[in-house]
């Protein structure tokens, strides 16, 4: 049949093949140009143990120096592959469980941990957890997931604004429905934002079955919803610097460390420590990993003193190691709650979809 | 006597020409998407379509689909309403600084939605200068943002076609006593229909799959099919519901493409092309100029907010945010400085641009050649639609699809650095095709035949007839592809490697980090990205050589 | 013995299964000019395109100089194709258009420049080289297209209605020019047209085509003298075709044997004092050469006739003579 093609056709096909080949060749050039790690797909089976792939969320960051030292000491090459936010990361891990996209994962948090554990994403590895971190472990993740960092999502208030307005800032979740605080709160949405979800969980922990009623009151009191945390904090919050109009926002316990006034040396915002939900991020070796031994070394590395000390300034979270020294601003202004709301991870995994659907119904009614 | 000609051979020829682009679309689009949809249909290793279909009966789904359709339709209509007169003013009238304006209109195209969302909200939010209008969290804000993003598509597609339109038929109609509006409706618009329909279908797809702006500006009150798929897949891993919506999305997009194809192919006669000198604006051009001014204001306001934000330092003004671009941000928020990310962005954009141009050219040639039989015509129309599909499918579906399908040799590509430019090229492909096709279709096929009979080989014909007519549209298409690649965030953030982030990825990271100076840096980086785009576009415009050209 | 030029055998082209060109066979000796004459939609353009290699054949053979052209792409056939509207390349100057085929063949620049000059003067457009096609009149564009087509001395020149886009006076003048240019260049040419004047003015041989099939071919004289059937006669420009009694009467009046249909030119019947036919004038219209009449002839019906000199008006009875040289006998269908 091909012989029957008109010659025109044949030369056109020739042109196509040339183009495609050129495309492939040029792309190869690109691949080699793009840096030290760009040897295409790393052939991990050829030299077992030489490369270890860490799958994590897009907020992961550590000083290059630390990573280089780790590589030198372990003889491993660490490849970091970011995969969206915590939810996206978890779901990617679940979907690719049989043929994982890496050897070790960091960043699955306590709201997603159960889902990952249920799906059998993590292999067994009992990491040496630092002192003080035992309480942060997921019950059913014992021996699989090691807590690496933690931080709490709390209501933040612009103390300067409240002083100027001669109004007492709120202190509890109940206060937020008080007409005195009408139109003052901005909340990132639970389905699109991880602190938004954490705040929803706070309310579920506080009000149990009645949480939708609380949210109705909150909305009736003029709460504003945004898509993400940055939008809420930088655009709508008065203390975020974006010229917003609302002095109450859902943010982190560490946020006050970032609003220190240069002249007075004091922070202008405060976290309400009775409104917090603690988020814990875990690391674990992936089942079916190609380099499980390397993966274990990475987990140990993340739990080590150096990484723990680098967490606040690189990922804006607290170390789980209670003995780690904090940066100065953190030590002064990032005050952690003694007690936080908590919801059983298994319960979260089971009810997430239902809660989010109901939340959406209530808030957009 | 033997049968000398078999219709199948022509179809094979077609397949041969389309082989390259088909392979790319097959591996990087059809395979991942069908893999992801299949996940929804297979429950515990058993085919269960019933549950997927049940999803479609949910009242929420109906609401979401309805909002998607009407907001996209409204966005498209408004974009056309503003864009067509603007195209006229910027391509047919001798306006001062029109080259700069054309380039400026393309800027929104490259801005990451997160940044645009913040800019829009600073403008129309409670505390913003336009806060009094109460637009925050309303569909009006969403639609305004859709128009903001897509104006460039209409202006460039329609404008480049309008620029080379023979003015004489319109003059003849005017001489016959037709009023300007009538001339426009009866002579000019039919001649531009190919370009207008092309632009409209692309804009509709962009609007219907808009994601970031809906989330940011809709205040979670409004959900589209796209945002719904994102939440279902990314947060809930409800693959059945996601598969149902993905299928629905594919269906709607297919219907749209068929309708658009019908509308385009109604025009039969080739269009005589010549480039008349731009006219001095007259009083009759006032409505067009007014629409242009409105369009420019719509684009300028958010950009101005952005620029102001980037220059804001504490209580005063300054360039500190720009100086910081060479660093990794306050509290070292970044892995690499923004300057390095800009290098990555430009490199990737160059690759994505030529990839999409090469593929787009082949596709355009395939779909515009004359068909000899109904089957052939259908095959060509089908191919035409196929290459538009990537625009109409959720980036999340595609991204997750990559992970679960491209993991086996010979296509074990999920770690490949090539994925980023390829994915961007796929996103840009429909724009490239839609820019080139109207021009190619407007070439009288007998030009090619005359050249062939004079001894020109097919490649020579491609060079001396098609490419000669395509020089400017190709530049326009290249500019588009470049801009799309620079601004692409969805697929890129999913695929880019940590060590080689592009500017939008870096901006997203900066804006998500605490500290006001990080926000300032994000805005400054956006301004730099916008500036880089505008400069590239201006250079492309400069390359246009008026008058006789050719090889 | 003339050299073998173009040969067609059983050439068939189908669109969606329907034959558009149906088993066409013809011979065109080298150096000759053949016109394929037919109404629009008869398949003549498709036939031309098939010869050019632009339409694949469903059946049949096309040979040139004895060689089967199957599988030879358009650009390797050594032909040239000229369209109704010239299809000049708008983005090139006149000289660049004419020089295009020379450039493709990589002729030295100086040689091509000379050749372009020569061709432009052949078509009467000296000094037009730097003009843009957009500034030319229709006739000038066709001349440029012709020069471009002749540039590389094609083995066969294919002309698709080359003059029909022009106005009538220009057309007849250019038809004569075309003929002399083709003869001067010794070009073998295949012309398709729906205009019999154009065909007769340019061609050595005529082929009549209808519904995809050839109905008749021969020299202009042969075809003119003996149309294959009534429809062919009408298409060749005969004003009317008579059969039955009227035909018998007219043939008898011309002194010819009967038994056929007869095709009449407008001037076949002329007013003559001793004419054998009698009729009443229905209308009269003056033209520069003669008075054109419509006459109701007894036993024949209304036919066209001419009168020279004396004024004849409607209502008058006239006698008519038949000029046997201005009618053609047509075989019964």
TrEMBL record, chain C:
PROSITE patterns: ABC_TRANSPORTER_1, ABC_TRANSPORTER_2. The keyword Acyltransferase does not apply. Residues 6-236 form the ABC transporter domain. Keywords: ATP-binding, Cell membrane, Ion transport, Iron, Iron transport, Membrane, Nucleotide-binding, Transport. One of its GO terms (molecular function) is ATP hydrolysis activity. Its EC number is 7.6.2.9. The keyword Cell membrane applies. It is an enzyme of class 7 (translocase). One of its GO terms (cellular component) is membrane. This is ABC-type quaternary amine transporter. It comes from Nocardioides donggukensis. The lineage of its organism: Bacteria, Bacillati, Actinomycetota, Actinomycetes, Propionibacteriales.
